[in-house]
Design goal:
- By secondary structure, this protein is an alpha+beta fold.
- The chain is 30% helix and 23% strand.
- The chain has a four-stranded mixed beta sheet.
- The longest helix is centred in the middle third of the chain and has 14 residues.
- The chain is globular and about 30 Å long.
- The N and C termini lie close together (12 Å).
């Protein structure tokens, strides 16, 4: 998989998302991707204003242009699939 084909994962980094655990989620996603030897591009962005869902994780790849992962789903499993 080339870098152009990497899955892009967006994790917010504004103060609201950080206070709700976005940093830990970003670190967990990066660690899991490294463990699985997956090619991802981790981008830190701003929130969408959905603070009751923060941190809201988004991922984009060729097969699925946009996927949203509310916090409760990320707690159960990292939002990366092979």
């Amino acid at each position: 998989m080339s870098f152009a084909e990497a899955t892009t994962v967006y994790v917010p980094c504004d103060s609201s998302a950080l206070s709700l655990g976005a940093e830990g989620v970003a670190l967990a996603i990066a660690a899991e991707a490294a463990r699985r030897n997956l090619n991802i591009k981790l981008v830190r962005n701003g929130s969408r204003g959905l603070y009751w869902l923060e941190p809201m994780i988004e991922s984009r790849d060729i097969a699925r242009p946009l996927r949203l992962w509310p916090r409760r789903r990320c707690r159960r499993s990292v939002a990366l699939r092979r």
